[in-house]
């Protein structure tokens, strides 16, 4: 039996999913939270609705990895460590260096650490996670999967900002995008569902979760994406502002007597988006409920959310000079039939349409009417499966 473990390490957390490969079935998943504390929380769900949960001291990521592996054996989820043949680490920033997932060695770990200037909190934690697994399971295939890799196919005209060229050549200041693993997974799946070669399709993938981004996928390659140098750009998100006029930063810092730019960027990252607009919540369900109860700020927050998605789709129709399919995925994309309907109903000029009955789903489905010019699909994303597939693909 061959199992792979997909890891998503944060500064104080470690999420994991254990998959049986090549079947791609989930055997167990869980989370270690509050790493570094005496009262860290460790949860595993497995089997048929079984759950293991303890609060105990877990002082660093290495201890988290050791405990996680020991517990998989103790709960008889695996008979021994030998069953785990691969580990895949999600990494936020791969810069221009990582155009594909990579086998982890000391050099790759060093490069991930060096790329931390593009994602300070994330890359450092991810490198720690890689080292921890190397120490405990040194012989298994270990792969780093980058959020940015899928977007390294973007042409210069898409990834350069219109600022002096030396900011790019000297500092690598450019658009990198994010959510690449998800966009890649759903684009490929869309082609399968439509029974057409990915190479022949123009697809717009809408990853609408708490973080949200849209990608233009032409012939299987990302040619533009809505997130930018960082995940702050693009759409209106749960707490992130998305695109704004840079002049607003100076103007508001003056008005608010804020002198530290980091303090203001923090507002744009954590207090803006649906939360800032509605004053209710960053969670789409809460905003939808408040809007239905007559809260006007929540109503306008929903309108803005949909408006930005429509505008990016419009842009990407122009970027690719056409579109064959639009895909919705992630928390909002997969679950909010209202959002999907409202977005598509504003794009009928492009030949987009929604079939209300087909749209009444949370599962994988084609939700446009039979024979529609543009196929609209709902595809639950699965970044863990994509990571596990990369482990298989790169296995030595
Ligand atoms: P992330 O992985 O970026 O944290 P998710 O992909 O889990 O986020 O998406 C979270 C978002 O999905 C939240 O805004 C949540 O309200 C929304 N969501 C989940 N279920 C529904 C639903 N039934 N209707 C509308 N929105 C939903």
Strand portion, in percent? Answer: 15-25%
- How would you describe the shape? globular
CATH class of the largest domain: Alpha Beta
Q: Number of DSSP strands?
A: 14
Mean residue pLDDT: 96
Domain module tally:
2
Order of helices and strands: EEEEEHEEHHEHHHEEEHHHHHEHHHEEH
Catalytic activity: acetate + ATP = acetyl phosphate + ADP
GO molecular function, one term: magnesium ion binding
InterPro entries: Ac/propionate_kinase, Aliphatic_acid_kin_short-chain, Aliphatic_acid_kinase_CS, ATPase_NBD
Binding site for ATP: 15, 207-211, 283-285, 331-335
What characteristics describe this protein?
14 strands, acetate kinase activity, 396 residues, 8-stranded mixed β-sheet, cytoplasm, Ac/propionate_kinase, 6-stranded mixed β-sheet, 2 domains, binds adenosine-5'-diphosphate, Nucleotidyltransferase, domain 5, 15 helices, alpha/beta, ATP binding
Question: Quick gist of this model?
Answer:
By secondary structure, the chain is α/β, with parallel strands linked by helices. It is 39% helix and 23% strand.
Description of the molecule:
The structure is a single chain. The chain is an alpha/beta fold and 396 residues long. It folds into two domains: 2-146, ATPase, nucleotide binding domain (Nucleotidyltransferase, domain 5); 196-383, Nucleotidyltransferase, domain 5. 39% of the residues lie in helices and 23% in strands. It has helices spanning 61-74, 106-114, 120-136, 156-159, 165-171, 180-194, 247-255, 261-270, 273-278, 284-292, 296-320, 330-335, 337-345, 356-359, 383-394; strands at residues 2-9, 14-21, 25-33, 37-46, 50-58, 84-91, 102-103, 141-146, 202-208, 212-218, 221-225, 325-329, 365-366, 375-378. The strands form two sheets. The chain has an eight-stranded mixed beta sheet, with helices on both faces. The protein has a six-stranded mixed beta sheet with strand order 11-10-9-12-14-13, with helices on both faces. Helix 10 packs across helix 11 (296-320) and helix 11 (296-320) crosses helix 13. The chain is globular, with a radius of gyration of 21 Å. The mean pLDDT is 96. Bound molecules: adenosine-5'-diphosphate. Residues 209-211, 238, 283-285, 288, 330-332, 335-336 line the site of adenosine-5'-diphosphate.
């Amino acid at each position: 039996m061959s199992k792979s473990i997909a890891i998503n390490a944060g500064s104080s957390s470690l999420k994991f999913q254990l998959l049986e490969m090549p079947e791609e079935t989930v055997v167990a998943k869980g989370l270690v939270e509050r790493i570094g504390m005496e009262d860290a929380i460790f949860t595993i769900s497995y089997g048929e609705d079984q759950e293991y949960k303890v609060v105990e001291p877990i002082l660093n990521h290495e201890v988290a990895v050791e405990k996680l592996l020991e517990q998989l054996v103790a709960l008889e989820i695996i008979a021994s460590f030998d069953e785990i043949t691969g580990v895949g680490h999600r990494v936020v920033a791969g810069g221009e260096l990582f155009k594909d997932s990579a086998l982890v060695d000391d050099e790759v770990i060093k490069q991930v650490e060096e790329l931390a200037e593009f994602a300070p909190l994330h890359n450092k934690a991810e490198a720690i996670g890689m080292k921890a697994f190397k120490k405990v399971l040194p012989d298994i295939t270990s792969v780093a999967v980058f959020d940015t890799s899928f977007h390294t196919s973007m042409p210069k005209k898409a990834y350069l900002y219109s600022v002096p060229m030396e900011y790019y050549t000297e500092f690598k200041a450019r658009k990198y995008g994010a959510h690449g693993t998800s966009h890649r997974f759903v684009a490929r799946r869309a082609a399968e569902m439509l029974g057409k070669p990915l190479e022949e399709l123009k697809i717009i993938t809408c990853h609408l979760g708490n973080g949200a981004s849209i990608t233009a996928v032409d012939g299987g390659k990302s040619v533009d994406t809505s997130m930018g140098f960082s995940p702050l750009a693009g759409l209106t998100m749960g707490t992130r502002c998305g695109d704004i006029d840079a002049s607003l930063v100076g103007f508001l810092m003056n008005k608010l007597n804020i002198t530290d730019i980091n303090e203001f960027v923090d507002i744009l990252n954590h207090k803006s988006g649906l939360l800032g607009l509605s004053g209710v919540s960053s969670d789409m369900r809460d905003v939808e409920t408040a809007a239905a109860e007559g809260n006007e700020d929540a109503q306008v927050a929903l309108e803005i959310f949909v408006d930005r998605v429509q505008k990016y789709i419009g842009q990407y129709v122009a970027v690719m000079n056409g579109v064959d399919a639009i895909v919705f995925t992630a928390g909002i994309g997969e679950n909010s039939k209202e959002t999907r309907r409202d977005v598509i109903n504003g794009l009928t000029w492009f030949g987009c349409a929604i079939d209300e009955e087909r749209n009444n789903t949370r599962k994988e489905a084609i939700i446009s009417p039979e024979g529609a010019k543009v196929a609209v699909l709902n595809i639950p994303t699965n970044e863990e499966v994509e990571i596990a597939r990369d482990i298989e693909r790169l296995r030595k």
